[in-house]
Amino acid sequence: MTAATDAQRRQQQRMARLAGLLRRAPGYRLALEEVLPRVRRSPTLTDLAWRVFAPRHGAGHVDVPLRGGRHVTGPDVSRLPVVGVLATGLEEAEAEGLIERVAALQAELATFRPLFVLDRPVFAAARRHDVVLELLVPRAAFAGGGHGGPAGWEDHVARRVAGIVDHYQLWHLARAGADGLDPLDERLVRAIGARLPEDLRAGPVGEHR
After folding, report:
1. pTM, 2 dp
2. Element (H, E) at 196
3. Which of 117, 134, 88, 111 is nearest to 189 (CA)?
4. Checking DSSP bridges between strand 132-135 and strand 113-118, what pairing results, if any?
């Protein structure tokens, strides 16, 4: 116990000395009074700073700026994990049905925020549930030679999905089809609730956790 306390005290002393040095640094006042307010007023710079400096933690600990959807509410909705839903080759009705199924799952659990990655522009279905839809170029467009040939489609999907995972800080990327989420992915999504912090204030519309 004493060793731990001494280690903590030494760490606090080092932090205090570092803070004192920073306050005496020539650019400290400029950074505090001019640079920092400008960063806070700029969405682009704020987003960049968030990506560079935000700590990486488990489910429910990272604030990710993304719409929560119509089925969750509360002060901490922005901390709910973002789950990507990837599906390609669906017909329009199947893609719309997938959005409805995942929205129903969100309404049931209220523990995640879905983000759809599809090759069908079913924006009306996405708007009904106030969720984000990111588009992929369909495989057929590559097969027709309009995007460099059939061999380029998988590379396109890989690059696009990698960018989406990074941009939205996805907690998980679930595969899906016309029948809904892959069974293993659905089990994983259902397990999110047990991993959320107890003080997270978000839940179904009409009540808070």
Report:
1. 0.70
2. none
3. 111
4. parallel
